[in-house]
Amino acid sequence: STSDVSANGGGMDPPSAAIKTMKLYSHVERIENELRSRGLASSDGILDPEALSEIDSLHYEGDTGMKAAIAAADLAPGSAVLDVGSGFGGPARLLASRKGCSVTALELQPDISEKARELTRRCKLDGLVQHVEGNILECDLNSLGKGPGTFDAVVSWLVFLHISDKEALLSKCAEMVKEGGVLFVEDYFLRGTCTEAEEKSLKEDVFCSDLPTKEEYVKAIEKAGFDDVAFEDRTEDW
């Protein structure tokens, strides 16, 4: 089951090689292939972030998820945003192009982070989007934007499920937001008992070793220091 979680305010993050067992992450060339098939690979290399957004995001609901984050965090021109597990940079570029946000896009996988950086340059958004390769649980937090306590929002789409140590993860997120800042997360949660086949699929196909219930998730978010937690079950829409 899936949900959007916003709030005011893991085990270890999987190694970049291990997570490649997910087919979604193992074919970086698919972006260029799709651009060519849609006739979007212009001769000058310049890309439209809106057109690119149809193929460069790794989360469900696409634009709906983006609009939900913008509304929940009340993002505006100049807002500083940290995107944890930013993938190919699709959401980061839309936050920059649509709202004028200054986005730090943190991605664990080197090849995906490099491709994201290239796509951002081609969208002429490298002045607003900074791509950083790293692990939120291990990297120097001072290397992210202006460092801890400076972000208006921390956002993430379908990434937290890969990180089993939610307490450590959420603690890092809490360090990064300024007072009154917002955490917006789109993620899986456990609604009931999984079958053996479902548990196997989660581990092997989705790279998720465990899932918290709604109550466990909210408790972990509050323990990290966030308040005014809003939890929206999006299962039916997905």
Short description:
The protein has helices at residues 30-37, 49-52, 63-73, 90-99, 110-122, 166-176, 196-205, 214-223, and strands at 2-8, 80-84, 102-107, 129-133, 151-157, 177-188, 227-233. With 238 residues, it is α/β, with parallel strands linked by helices. α6 crosses α8 (214-223).
Number of strands: 7
How much helix, percentage-wise, in residues? 25-40%
The spatial strand order of the largest sheet comes to: 4-3-2-5-6-1-7
How many helical stretches? 8
Using the alpha-carbon principal axes, give the shape. Answer: globular
Series of secondary-structure elements, N-terminal to C-terminal: EHHHEHEHEEHEHHE
Overview of the structural elements:
- With 238 residues, the protein is an alpha/beta fold.
- The protein has helices at 30-37, 49-52, 63-73, 90-99, 110-122, 166-176, 196-205, 214-223; strands at 2-8, 80-84, 102-107, 129-133, 151-157, 177-188, 227-233.
- The chain is built from eight helices and seven strands.
- Mean pLDDT is 87; it is low at 10-16 and 19-24.
- A seven-stranded mixed sheet has the order 4-3-2-5-6-1-7, sandwiched between helices.
Keywords:
alpha/beta, globular, 7-stranded mixed sheet, 238 residues, 32% helix
List the topology elements.
Layout: E1 2-8, H1 30-37, H2 49-52, H3 63-73, E2 80-84, H4 90-99, E3 102-107, H5 110-122, E4 129-133, E5 151-157, H6 166-176, E6 177-188, H7 196-205, H8 214-223, E7 227-233
Parallel strand pairs: 2-3, 2-5, 3-4, 5-6
Antiparallel strand pairs: 1-6, 1-7
Helix pairs in contact: 6-8
